[in-house]
Amino acid sequence: MLSIPYLSAEAPYATIAIVVALLFILRPLKAMRRSLINTSVFFSACLLGDLLAGLMLSEHRLSAVAHLLRQMSIFGEGLAVIRFIGLAWFNVALPRVHLRISGILADILVIIGYIGWAFFRLNQSGVELTHLFATSAILTAVLAISMQDTLGNLLGGLALQMDNSLEIGDWIKIDDLSGQVTDIQWRYTAIVTRNGEKAIVPNSQLMKGRYYVLCDKNAEYPAWRRSIEFNIDLAVPPGRLIRLIESDLAAATIPHVAQTPPPNCVLMSFGPGYAHYVLRYWLLDAKLDDPTDSEVRSHVLATLQRSGIRLATDDHIIHLVKEGTAHRETVQNRELKRRLQAIASIELFARLSDSEKQHLAEHLINAPFARGDILTRQGAIAHWLYIIVDGEVEAWWQPPEGPRRLLEKRGPGSVFGEIGLMTGAPRRATVVATSDVEAYRLDKDGFQEIIRQRPELADSLSATLASRLRRFDDLERGYQAGRDEQARQTQGSAAIGKKIREFFGLD
Predict the structure, then answer these.
(1) Contact residues for 122 (Cβ-Cβ < 8 A; gap 6+)
(2) Helix, strand, coil % (nearest 5) of the chain?
(3) Which residue ranges does the record assign to the Cyclic nucleotide-binding domain (predicted)?
(4) What is the pLDDT of residues 321-361, one digit of tens each?
(5) CA dist 349 to 343, 352, 402, Å?
(6) What CATH number labels 334-504?
(7) Measured by CB atoms within 10 angstroms of the end CB, which terminus of the chain is less buried, N or C?
(8) C-beta neighbour count of 429 within 10 angstroms
């Protein structure tokens, strides 16, 4: 039997148990280092009290006080040992064999160990446990009645952790409270809202009431369905609008928006002069609800503006502007000047006269795009071009085999789709907006009148287009080193000029 002078017989064994437990749990439980240090300090204090009691007993001084101090010290040493054994067993040993129990249940079992150790020490001290149990039963009944709420919170927290209906990290909604679960304690569950506020919700309230788990990872689709509402004039056919919104949202790349299930648009109701629509999509990250809603609204608005569809206003609203005619003329002149500046920066139209540029400016159509939208798609037939006024885009080329390739990036002042406008040829690349893009669209009809009045423009424009095509071929050859040079020469200036004449019916 181990014995150390002046220490109780239990002290050496308790010390060995503490040291072994520390070696076992110190590395895996780095996050609980402060708790381990506090328990170690408590154990050291108990050892010191045990040693002091031994010194007092050896000198026969204050024996009653020394006996009490020793019993309290031994009791404290046992509490520390139970604490470390509990940590080692529930937090290290069981997880290593892939067994986990809830934190509250582990704490309850440790507390039962404390109580059992207390009864054992009382029995060792000569206390009759039968009388104590009878008294404690009455005391327990009184405490149970007076602590109904506390016990309800305790059992509620235990049930939440054991049935996994709520886990740390889940996003939940309770009435008007929404946030992320950060902790489940005996009495309460802590929820941090998006505003950084920490809400304390009693566990009994969660057990009695109703709450919603957002983006439940155990669901078939671990996402949260969101709704974007907007009103459109009754003159717009619902079928056309729904197809337009759904197709554009399905093609766009929007962060945190699920592709499956796809977004869907429905006609919900009618109002005075408008139809009320709702766009529903599935959000993958509950924390980013408002920013993602904003992104989706931007896409919807850009889609409507490109198609010439305006959001409806209530027919009962009357908007009066003083000196309205002069105001409208000022706005139109400012917009026309902006369009002329955009056209003047394009090399393709450098040979046009001022009146011809004015004509083109009047035929430009506002075409905004949200980040992730597709401006043009490779292989598509579209007889128009885009002039980028603000924002950035990327051109991607999909070879017959292999992954798609990034050809180039362009910003303000760039043009896309000029080959399709001038020759009717399919798009050579897919162009994607990497930011919100402000652009103008020029259709074939807007340019047709000019080139029919001046057929010679076909020859002068063909040289510029041929240069553009050769540059595109060079970009492609960066990925296709063995491409036939003869195939490239077929896109010469003469061939481009012939295509322009045929497309606009000049021959």
Answers:
(1) 129, 132
(2) 50, 20, 30
(3) 348-468
(4) 555 677 678 878 888 888 888 888 887 788 888 888 888 88
(5) 7, 6, 37
(6) 2.60.120.10
(7) N
(8) 24
